[in-house]
């Protein structure tokens, strides 16, 4: 009986340490499915955010950096897309990063968003308006 109890205790400790390590598993660079952009996810205090650190075509037809021209806020349309923080304010809870937002510079729209890492190591991004059931998901691959 004590052997089973000891084994259960060891399993519980190992499980807790795995969960503790998972919190920062999201950190690093991720490539979107089209291969057109990389986002670096970082930690700010106890929240997680991400910014565009690479874009396949960073410049417009005139050779100037692409700007956030679709932003609904006219004051923000002159900021460059490169370096833009598109993932904001995710909290880690129950093995997922939740209650954040994702901004799409191609449309100028911001969506509620949840993130999780799938068994294959890809980052699952779920953007939605209102409830998570009505939305869109995509998988990003980690950049080595």
Automatic annotation (TrEMBL):
The keyword Signal applies. Residues 1-20 form the signal peptide. InterPro entries: DUF2147. Keywords: Signal. The keyword Signal applies. Residues 28-142 form the DUF2147 domain. This is DUF2147 domain-containing protein.
């Amino acid at each position: 009986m004590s052997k089973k109890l000891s084994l259960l205790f060891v399993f519980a400790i190992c499980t807790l340490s795995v969960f503790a390590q998972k919190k920062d598993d999201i950190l690093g660079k991720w490539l979107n499915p089209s291969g057109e952009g990389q986002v670096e996810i970082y930690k700010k205090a106890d929240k997680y955010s991400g910014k565009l650190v690479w874009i396949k075509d960073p410049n417009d037809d005139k050779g100037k950096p692409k700007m956030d021209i679709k932003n609904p806020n006219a004051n923000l349309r002159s900021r460059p897309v490169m370096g833009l923080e598109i993932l904001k304010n995710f909290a880690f809870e129950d093995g997922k990063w939740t209650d954040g937002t994702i901004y799409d510079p191609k449309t100028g729209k911001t969506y509620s968003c949840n993130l999780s890492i799938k068994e294959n190591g890809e980052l699952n991004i779920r953007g939605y308006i209102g409830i998570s059931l009505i939305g869109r998901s995509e998988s990003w691959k980690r950049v080595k």
